[in-house]
Amino acid sequence: MPNNPLTPGVVPGRLGAAVILDNFADMAPPLDAHEARVAADRCYFCFDAPCMTACPTSIDIPLFIRQIATGTPEAAARTILGQNILGGMCARVCPTETLCEEVCVRETAEGKPVEIGRLQRFATDAMMAKGGHPFTRAAATGKRVAVVGAGPAGLSAAHRLAMLGHDVVMFDARAKAGGLNEFGIAAYKATEGFAQAEVEWLLRIGGIKVETGKRLGRELSLEALRAEYDAVFLGLGLAGVNALRAEGEEQAHVRDAVDFIAELRQARDLATLAVGRDVVVIGGGMTAVDAAVQSKLLGAEHVTIVYRRAPEKMAASEYEQEHAASKGVRIITGAAPVRVLGNGAVEAVEFAYTSEGPEGLVVTSETFRLKADQVFKAIGQNLDGVPGGVALTGRKIAVTGPGRTSVPGVWAGGDCAEGGNDLTVTAVANGRDAALDIHASLMGVAG
């Protein structure tokens, strides 16, 4: 294919392999040892640290930064990983700009926070590079726990349960473990196969068996799992995708953004991926931003995100919106899709402007069209299949306390459960806390 971004249609090879490789390089290269010490020296080591309160996994941030400052990054890694076993990935993908770094005292005083995320990556990468595992298993309890879903919540739960001495079998519908981290985030955020490397490293705790290609409601049933195992943890994620509900969405080259991102993440050669010249992404969350930016990096000439509400209501952070804009992505807010136009393949999308008032969102009669040869739907995901007997709250699994469902002996966490918010770090916290509650229950000390 010619290395020409003006090539019409949805085609691969819009850019040369070398250009694409450069486009998808590490978004935030790691700090070296000197840079890490300088960054760590900016921390005030607050006693009542607001950054620690803002962290969903409650990592002792001042402590691990002090450990880096004193030249002991592996000790810092233990501090991090003791609370967040996926600390390496979270250092790469966590929206620190709206969590720990947003409340940093340096941010308040100077407008420039301590680089907590990059320091966390420095410490965890140092630990993983040594190849060892900082934790060992407790004495075997003789208990067996099934973990359904090998994404962040499931991995976190499995690791903590194994560390506490339980035997864990982790099931996943896909061909490999990792969930959102492996299939659902932009490739430039986790380069060089880091997601799988982290999974392999995590499994070194021992006591965890992974069975892929097994899905609840297909090869697995909750009833059978409850009969065979002492406890069950559901970390199913949100595999279903919301429909666009716009006329003509069955046109060719209209697809779910999550499928596009997963395909991109699994591609061995990004130059073989087909992308349109005029790409429209419908949605306002991180999936929309990731699909849009990566389309641009693959060589799309025009990429537009269209979101139905006001910009401040976009789920994607202001930082991510600015990142998209810096890559040439246009963002239009206050517009909803009404028709996908084309003759077998999409040619344009018609939108109607929206307004918000006391009665909610209103679609007006004023419309406009955007030329499009490829459309990505990123309008939210849902629970794909509900395990029998498990109560729901809205469209998610209802939980109380640390992930207890309405079914005895069954816990849930991550995006599939009430309170899940599409963040790896929150899913990790859910999995960890559920594991501790499962352990207490199995050992007869539950509250």
SSE topology:
Elements: H1 17-23, H2 33-40, H3 50-54, H4 61-69, H5 73-83, H6 87-93, H7 105-110, H8 116-130, E1 144-148, H9 152-163, E2 167-172, H10 180-183, H11 194-202, E3 208-212, H12 222-228, E4 231-234, E5 240-241, E6 254-256, H13 257-266, E7 278-282, H14 286-297, E8 302-307, H15 318-326, E9 330-333, E10 335-342, E11 346-357, E12 360-371, E13 374-377, E14 381-382, E15 392-393, E16 396-397, E17 410-412, H16 424-442
Parallel strand pairs: 1-2, 1-4, 2-3, 4-17, 6-13, 7-8, 7-13, 8-9
Antiparallel strand pairs: 5-14, 10-11, 11-12, 15-16
Helix pairs in contact: 2-4, 2-8, 4-5, 4-8, 5-8, 6-8, 9-16, 13-14, 14-15
Structure description:
Helix 4 runs antiparallel to helix 5 and helix 13 crosses helix 14. The chain contains 16 helices and 17 strands. The chain has helices spanning 17-23, 33-40, 50-54, 61-69, 73-83, 87-93, 105-110, 116-130, 152-163, 180-183, 194-202, 222-228, 257-266, 286-297, 318-326, 424-442, and strands at residues 144-148, 167-172, 208-212, 231-234, 240-241, 254-256, 278-282, 302-307, 330-333, 335-342, 346-357, 360-371, 374-377, 381-382, 392-393, 396-397, 410-412. 34% of the residues lie in helices and 19% in strands. The chain is globular and about 65 Å long. It has a five-stranded parallel sheet, with helices on both faces. The protein is an alpha/beta fold. The protein folds into three domains: 33-130, Alpha-helical ferredoxin (Fumarate Reductase Iron-sulfur Protein, Chain B, domain 2); 144-239 and 383-442, FAD/NAD(P)-binding domain (3-Layer(bba) Sandwich); 243-381, FAD/NAD(P)-binding domain (3-Layer(bba) Sandwich). The protein starts with 16 loop residues before the first helix and ends in a 5-residue tail after the last helix. Strand 8, helix 15 (318-326) and strand 9 form a beta-alpha-beta unit.
